[in-house]
Amino acid sequence: MGNNKLFIHKSVVYSVITLLFTPILTTFIYSLSSSWGATILPDGFSLKWYSALLTDPRFIDAFGRSLFICISALLLATVLVLPMIFVVFYYYPKLDKIMNLLILLPFAVPPVVSSVGLLQLYAESKFQLIGTPWILIATYFTIALPFMYRAIANSFTTINLKDLIDAAHLLGASTTKAFLLVILPNLKKGLLASLFLSFSFLLGEFVFANILVGTRYETLQIYLYNMRQTSGHFTSALVMTYFAFIFFCTWLASRLTRGNTQ
Amino acid sequence: MSYVTINKLSKCFGEVTVFEDIEFTIEEGEFVTLLGPSGCGKSTLLRTLAGLDKANKGEIWVDGVDITHTQAQHREIGMVFQSYALFPNMTVEDNIAFGLKMKGISKKDAKEDLQKMLALVELGGKEKCHPHELSGGQRQRVALARALIVKPRILLLDEPLSALDAKIRKNLRQQILDIQKELNLTTIFVTHDQEEAMLMSDRIFLMNQGEIVQQGNPEDIYTKPVNEFVASFMGNYNLISAETAKHWFNINSNNKVAIRPESIYIKDAGRQYADHISSPKLAKIISHQLLGNVIRYNLKVENEELTVDLLNRSSERLMPKGSSIELLFNLNEIQPVGV
User: Which first-to-last residue range defines the signal peptide (chain A) (predicted)?
Assistant: First the structure.
C-alpha cells in the first residue's frame, strides 16, 4: 500500500515536471534543427542558429545593455535598501508594517498602467528621461524593492538584532562597525538570494522596457520582440540562450547561499 | 567611597515609569543580584547601568568616575545576555576576540589571552566552531568569555541561565561563581529565580514595581522579610491575619504575621521538642505535593490554611489526605511583616 501511494506521488510529480519541461525541450530541439517544416521530425540538426545569434553584434549589445540596467538597478537597490531596513528594524520597528504595505505598491499597479503614468509624468520634464536607460534603472529599482525588502527583512527577523548590536556596543564597537561586522555578514544569504531573484525577474522584464524606452535603447527583451518576424529557429536559439543564462545564475545563487551556511 | 554608586536613578518610557530614585552601592568584587518578578524593572536597570538605555535622572559612579553620560562602548562594562547574543557569522575564537579587535589588538597578539579565556570557560578545542554547533551551555560560556576577555570593570549578567535546562544551569551557575571569585569581579546578576539569587549572591536587591523593597544578604532577606511582597516572593511563607496571630500565639501586630513552612512541625508521638517549639494546634491535611526531598502539606487549621514542609524520609511516613494531626510552631521564627 505504501508503495502504491509512493507510485501515485511520483507519477504526479513526474507528470508536472514533464508538462513544464516539454515546451522548453521542444524549443531547444527547434533551435537546434536546421529546418523543420511539414515533417514530423526535423530535416537535420545544426548549431547554425546559435552561431548566427552569438555573432550578431546587435544581440551582444542588447545583452550588455540589459546587464547594465539590471546590475545598476540592483546596485542602487542594495545601497539604498540595506541601510533603510536596518534603520527600520533597529530604530523604528513599528515602521515595518507600513513598509510592508509600501513595497507592495509597485506590484499593486499593473505595469502597463504605471508605465503610461511614468510616461505622462516625465514627458515634459526638463531632463530627457524617457527613452534613456536612466528611467529604466529607476523603475527597475522599484520593481526589485519588494523582493529585496522581504528577503532581507526575513534575514533580519532570524537574527536577534537588538541584542547583537547591544553586545557589539558593549565590546567597544560603534553602531556602524556593529552593522558592518556583525549584522551585514548575517544578511549575506538573504541579500544574495533576493539579488538573484530580482535579477532574473528584471532580465525578462518587457512592458516597462518597451513603453518607456523601446527601440531607442534596445534591451534583450526588446531585441527578442523585434526579432519575432525572423526565423523561429533563430528566436528559439535566443530564448534558449536566455534560459541557459538564467539557469546558470540560479545555480550560482544556490551555490553561493549554500556555501554560507556550511 | 564604594566601587559602584547609584544615585537617585530614574527611568521612564514616555508616561510609564520603569523605576524611580534607585539608590545603592556595590563594593569591589561583590556579587549582587537584582531579584524580582518580571516587569519589576530589574532588566531595564541593568541596561541603564550598561549604557544601553539612557537614564532620565540620577547618576552612576564607577570607581570614582561619573559615567552617567558615557556611551556604552566606552563604559568598559561587560554583559551576558539571556539570548547569548553571540555573533552567528563568527567562530568561537572570533566571537571571544571581538572586544580585543575593537581595541585594535590583532588576533595574533591576543593568542595568549584567548587560550587563557578558552581554558577558563573550558571550551578548549572548540575555537573553530560556529555558535550554532554548540549547546546552550557552551554558547553561554562563549558569551561569558567574550565579555571577560576585555577585563571589564563590572560584569552584568541578564538572566544568563534562564534559557538553559536544570542540570546545565546548575553547573554553569557554579562555574560563573568560581570565575567571579577567581577574578574578583564586581558582578551584577539579574534573575527572577529566588533560589538562584540566594545561592549565588553576596547581597540581594529585591525589586518590585520599580523600587528596591529590601536589600541585604540572602539569609536576612529570607528570614526577615520586611513586607508581604518579600515574604510571598522569597519563600512559601504562610501569612496569617493579625487576629489569628493574637489568638494563637499572643502576638500583637497591626499587620499580617509570617511563618515559614519549615518552622511548623507535625508532632511525632513520643518525641521531645525544645521549649520554643510549642503552641499545639489540631489540623487536617487537605493535600500534599511531593517536591523531591521535601513534602509540602497543605493544611487547614481553624479558619486558616497553612503550608508545611517536611523532609521526605520514607514513603511509609507519608500522611494521606484527610488525616488529622497536631502541629507545633517554632515561636522564635514567627514574625509580623510590614505592608
Answer: none
Domain membership of residue B217 (yes or no) is yes
Q: Hey, are the CB atoms on B103 and A172 less than 8 Å from each other? A: yes
Site of grid cell 513595497 = A103
d(CA A54, CA A48) in angstroms, rounded, equals 10
β-bridge partners, B112: none
Mean predicted lDDT score pLDDT of chain A = 88
Q: Do A170 and B83 touch (CB under 8 A)?
A: no
> At a CB cut-off of 8 Å and minimum separation 6, what does B20 contact?
B10, B12, B210, B211
Tell whether B162 and B310 lie within a shared domain.
Answer: no
Parallel, antiparallel, or unpaired for β B304-311 and B211-216?
unpaired
- Which residues from chain B sit within 8 angstroms of residue A181, using beta carbons? 87, 98
Going by pLDDT thresholds of 50, 70 and 90, the confidence category of residue B339 is low
CB contact under 8 Å between B85 and A166, yes or no, is yes
For A28-56, the pLDDT digits (tens) are: 998 888 877 777 777 778 888 898 888 99
Residues 6+ apart with CB under 8 A from A239: A27, A31, A224
**B89 and B174 inside one domain:** yes
Q: Does A163 touch chain B (CB under 8 A)?
A: yes
Query: Looking at residues A121-129, what average pLDDT do you find?
Result: 82
Residue of A nearest to B104 (CA): A172
d(CA B38, CA B100): 34
Characterize A21-56 residue by residue with b for buried, 16 or more Cβ atoms within 10 angstroms of its Cβ, and e for exposed.
Answer: eeeeeebbebbbbeebeeeeebeeeeeebbebbeee
Q: Which of A170, A188, A261 to mutate to test binding with chain B, by most B CBs within 10 Å of its CB?
A: A170
Count: domains in chain B: 2
Domain end among B171, B202, B232: B232
- 3-state SS string for chain A: CHHHHHHHHHHHHHHHHHHHHHHHHHHHHHHHEEECCCCCCCCEECCHHHHHHHCCHHHHHHHHHHHHHHHHHHHHHHHHHHHHHHHHHHCCCCHHHHHHHHCCHHHHCCHHHHHHHHHHHHHCCCCCCCCCHHHHHHHHHHHHHHHHHHHHHHHHHHCCHHHHHHHHHHCCCCHHHHHHHHHHHHHHHHHHHHHHHHHHHHHCCCHHHHHHHHHHHCCHHHHHHHHHHCCHHHHHHHHHHHHHHHHHHHHHHHHHHHHHHC
Is the predicted ipTM greater than 0.85, yes or no?
A: no
- Is the domain of B129 the same as that of B216? yes
Alpha carbon distance B216, A172 (integer Å) = 33
- The residue range of the domain holding B190 is 4-232
Residue A125, pLDDT above cutoff 90: no
Distance from CA of B147 to the nearest CA of A (A): 7
With contacts defined as CB-CB under 8 Å, which chain B residues touch A173?
A: 73, 98, 102
Beta bridge partners of B203: B32
> Any chain A CB within 8 A of the CB of B155?
no
Are A201 and A151 in contact by the 8 Å Cβ rule? The answer is no
> Are B56 and B174 in a shared domain?
yes
